[in-house]
Amino acid sequence: MSAPACTWLGRSVPRLEDGPLLRGLGRFVDDIRLPGLLHGAFLRSPHAHGRLTAIDAAAAEALPGVHGVLTYGDLRRVLTCDRIPLAMPAGAIRFDVDPFVLARDEVCHVGEPVALVVAESRAVAEDALALIGLEIEPLPAVVDPRAGLAPDAPRARLDCPDNRVAATEAAYGDVDRAFAGAAHVVREAFNLHKGGGHSIEPRGVVARFDQAERLLTVWDSTQMPHQAKRALVRTLGLAEHQVRVVAPDVGGGFGPKFVFHPEELAVAAAAMIVGRPVKWIEDRLESFTATVQERDQHWTIEAACDAEGRLLGIRGDLVHDHGAYTPYGVALPYNSATNLLGPYRLPAYRLAISLCLTNLVPATPTRGAGRPQGTYVMERLLDRLAERTGLDRAEIRRRNLITPDQMPYRTPLRTRDGKAMTYDSGDYVECQRRALALAGWDGFEARRAAARREGRWLGIGLANYVEGSGRGPFESAAVRVGPSGTVVVTTGATAQGQGTVTMLAQVVAEVLGIAPERIAVVAGDTNASALGLGAFASRQAVTAGNAAHAAALAVRAKILQVASAWLEASPADLELVDGRVQVKGVPGSGRALGEVADALAGAPGLALPAGVAPGLAAGVDFEPEGLTYCNGTHVVEAEVDPDTGTVAITRYTVVHDCGRLINPMMVEGQIVGGVVHGIGSALYERMLYAEDGQPQTGTYADYLLPTADVAPRIAIHHMESPSPLNPLGVKGAGESGTIAAPAAVASAVEDALRPFGVRVADLPITAARLHGLLAAAGGAAP
Amino acid sequence: MKPAPFSYHAPTTRADLLALLAAHDDCRLLAGGQSLVPLLNLRLAGPAHLIDITRVAGLDGIARDGEVLRIGATTRQRRAERSPLVRAAFPLLSDALAHVGHVATRNRGTIGGSLAHMDPTAELSVVALVADATLTIESARGARTIPFVALPTGPLATAIAPDEVLTRIDLPLWPEGHGWGFAEVTRRGEGFAVVSAAALVALAPDGTCARAALAVGGLVAAPARVGEAEALLARRVPRDDRIAAAGEAAARLPAESDLYGPEAYKRHLARVLTVRALRQAVDRARGGVRD
């Protein structure tokens, strides 16, 4: 009789978000329509680098329908500081390269905002842009970070003495001795490119300033409304109660909407200056040039192993393209460096990391956040060592995997918060074993031979990964039951389509015995939750999920305490079922939760029941002890046409372990989306710039996202190794699908072309690039 | 991403259309809009007048007239692709159309719009070239016809004058039992081609090529015929070595590097795809297969 009537955790509950969205009832930033709303458009730098010498706005201001043409000087008058203080604390950062709200006297990338036109319509605002006279004296641009680090390189920014904005390292063990005693050493250079976030909904802001109350309300397509509020409070000189930031329905984040961009401040400041609400919706051209993205890393690296294929050490250099500003510290390349370890034992390691300022839009994390690159490098090195030692690629991995008896496994590296990077749980050996079995690794040679008889070239590849998820320091959630019986969850977590609302509703439903669809979740509103961070680092099920869980348990305890008195039954004999608290096994014996809430709402002068504190509510800020590590194995089969260099992925298998599953369907959705994003990085996505820093791939005709017709069917198998670090035992799932995909695809492509002697190193593996490799290797199978 | 102001016109008769073109400078014609509308929104095109020709009576339709297939310029690509008449009379066009953009864009995009836009990678241009298509171009000054080969004048530029409109595409039919082939490499899955190749082959009873036509697109601003290959196939049996030689001839065509391929890669694709298209065409001609 102790089991609840139904449990909600671990069930593929249909997403609560989908009904309104599918019926066109979503409310995105562009759906916010206010009386007197004006529309903004940004004049952006056409040069990658230059000195801003003059802006002539007279003709634009004279255009009918234009309410203002604002430049840096205009906005500065309502700001408290020259630059937007954004930099995440990082000791390694040498220079202050925070951005200005609009370019002040130097432009540092194509697309940098220079002026803001506010007009009756977006079309009129864009007409006005064409009338602004902009004088920029071009300066030499830094586009390639390797060239940017040369002593005689031009400076990407006139306010910095050189371009090496940070230098750091990840290192432990005696790596040189490891190499000295190695049986095998492989060396390789990897030039890696990773794509942007490319959410369907671009960025967007609506800002309204109520002069009478001095109340600024900003609807912002952001992952981090509380951070945006902090930035607005600080830069606009307002108090916390005067700024409200709301992230309404957000059509995808994938990383870039973590960053507070200058436009978010510019639009808010403009609303204060013109005295009317202002809307700015980023168009796709702007997304390509002004939204942060991930880009290039150049690795020069070597790996050593003993005669049995056991890793002894890895050492090398990483040059990272940082872009023109630094809103994200050194986190991106540091993630790459630390995630290189993956699920393997690596006795010694030394990676020197240089971050180079370039005249490109800032590079900050997109889904995977640098981890795919680190994983790619490790997995490619293992493939090389497999070849060198004659071991099967799966076998050399098996020999190096951390085993379950070593859990929790403390690596010698430290995470961003200074704690030891410690893998909390997981069975990496079993994960790989299952993936190989499900993918038919052992039967592949027969498939390969059959395909060869048809003139087709098949290859198979695999990759393992871990991902540190659930990053702190905290997330907030509160659970309230009102006299109406409605359960409302408020949280500092945010939703961009990943199912945050459903996830939290399931967690609370489990504790309160009420169906998820009867639970309202309010996320993304700084007025609803005093504290909050938001979406990054695959963290919200871990942090907000456990916060909501703890809060719901506190509410449950109050319910039981009150009901125990009312029903004259021990709390142990009570159960919460379908919105009621009742004596176990006696339906109809109890009271509705709303009645408990009504009693705890109090009546004037009367005592509260059972000596319970007022209100049927509890709020919890959950602080995770440390990162919790999910893991997985991807196995890919690909067909390569050696005559054209084209690649088709024919089979894809994922075994994935993100601890206890809250909603398997939503996890699978995350994995599929992540894998496809990773396939994009592996084969298609490439933001190209000319030597002068002009973007060459500014539309989706030129910048190739992975589309449905090139996405394979992805078979997913779950393992569940609960995390010991949080009561729910959950781990993050949002980014993991992306992490192993490029490595696994590269392994499969290289395997298909093994008879040609092709070695795949650089990403993306475009058809033209692969053809070049084939031609260089002689172009013909032996 | 809003277009600059323009005047919108939607004539319903050919006479009104030609009068509008004569009356206004700086016109652009809007048909399916799959290329022009993005250009307008990006402000890469900013005409004073936009003339929507999709309501003009008599500009669409597919008909066989003796040994010619006549296709009205505003015929939607998807309609032509699914047309039994096209499939029976000019199967190369049906096959090539299946590679144009995506189904969603083909539902809107028109045959004439694609040709007049003259994208260097357009599949329809390759077909029009290999088929010796004739284009009818009209203006208030009268009508004229030009061979397709005279249409391109540069990147995204054609011989259609500002006051003219492309109204019809005529494809001279190949004999019953001819073979056809189309092959391309795209940037990614469905969508823009990097290089594409089309082949038509008619065999004489003795197995020699009575006629052979080959064209390759994507190498430079406009597609090119592989004349050298056509000459070496003429009146000869299309043996494997000659098919290979045809590919080598295609690889000698001029090519320009772009984001999707250095010149050498494009020439390589010209060779590979010409061989594939020609092989298909020869096999079909030999088998007399109509699939």
TrEMBL record, chain A:
Q: Which residues form a coiled coil?
A: none
Occurrences of domain Aldehyde oxidase/xanthine dehydrogenase a/b hammerhead (ranges): 23-140
Alphabetical keyword list: Molybdenum, Oxidoreductase
* Gene3D superfamilies (alphabetical): Aldehyde oxidase/xanthine dehydrogenase, a/b hammerhead, Aldehyde oxidase/xanthine dehydrogenase, molybdopterin binding domain
Q: Which SMART domains match?
A: Ald_Xan_dh_C
**Source organism, top-level taxon:** Bacteria
Protein name, please?
Caffeine dehydrogenase subunit alpha
Q: Which organism is it from?
A: Methylobacterium crusticola
Q: List the gene name.
A: cdhA_2
UniProtKB/TrEMBL annotation, chain B:
Superkingdom, natural source: Bacteria
Q: Which organism is it from?
A: Methylobacterium crusticola
Q: Which SUPFAM superfamilies match?
A: CO dehydrogenase flavoprotein C-terminal domain-like (SSF55447), FAD-binding/transporter-associated domain-like (SSF56176)
Coiled-coil-forming residues are: none
Name one matching Pfam family.
Answer: FAD_binding_5
Which intervals hold domain FAD-binding PCMH-type? 1-176
What is the protein's name according to its record?
A: 6-hydroxypseudooxynicotine dehydrogenase complex subunit alpha
4Fe-4S keyword on record:
no
> Which keywords does this chain's UniProt record carry?
FAD, Flavoprotein, Oxidoreductase
Query: Can you tell me where the transmembrane regions are?
Result: none
What gene is this protein translated from? kdhA_2
Where is the secretion signal located? Answer: none
